[in-house]
Specification:
This protein is 22% helix and 33% strand. The chain is α+β, with helices and mostly antiparallel strands. Strands 1-2-3-4-11-6-9 form a seven-stranded antiparallel β-sheet.
Length: 198
């Protein structure tokens, strides 16, 4: 899930970073963990975890997921959006990823179930792309293209999806989203992460 990208600055949005930092700090303290202990569990440096808690780091989305798993929770819960009501209507989507060209990834809603599906809406501006690190083993993404052309690259394979086209991607490997043409590409993405044997 981590953004790398073109020469433009890309990464998580400010609101997302602030909320994740607050949630990580609160959950770490509630679990009785030191910063170093949680950093070790998540496979991150102490400095990076401290910066994430302060909302001043620009972590990959994979790093945020590793922290969530080390805390015994999931990505969506770190946004404070876990809700067990029979019907949950979020106030607004959370802008999790953005680039300076105007591309963005919005998380609309996540399952109340740990590691359950997440519903995203993405917009990629012409010429922009998103390069991702592998998600946990068994992870999958489903796509529905609303407008423009979405190009999925996985290893040596390249697939082009036009408006109305759908696809499934095994995201437990490196992959990329790209655009083709002069118009933005808008697509819906449903993510379900594998549990890595949890």
């Amino acid at each position: 899930m981590s953004a790398q990208g073109s020469d433009e600055v890309q990464g998580p949005g400010e609101d997302f970073l602030a909320e994740v930092g607050k949630q990580v700090r609160a959950r770490r303290r509630a679990a009785g963990l030191t910063v170093q202990a949680l950093a070790d569990k998540a496979g991150l440096s102490r400095r990076m975890l401290t910066m994430i808690e302060q909302g001043s780091a620009n972590p990959s989305l994979v790093s945020v997921d590793k922290i969530a798993r080390a805390l015994g929770t999931d990505f969506t819960s770190l946004l404070g959006s876990a809700n067990n009501d029979p019907v949950h209507v979020p106030e607004r989507p959370v802008q999790v990823w953005e680039s300076s060209t105007g591309s963005r990834g919005l998380l609309h809603v996540g399952s109340a179930r740990t590691d359950g599906p997440e519903l995203w809406e993405w917009t990629l501006q012409p010429g922009d792309h998103y390069d991702a690190q592998p998600d946990p083993v068994g992870s999958e993404e489903l796509f529905l293209v609303r407008s423009g052309t979405l190009v999925l690259k996985v290893g040596d394979r390249t697939v082009r999806l036009g408006p109305g086209a759908s696809a499934r991607l095994a995201s437990d490997r490196e992959y990329s989203y790209l655009t083709e043409g002069a118009e933005p590409t808008v697509f819906i993405r449903v993510v379900e992460l594998g549990t890595d044997g949890r």
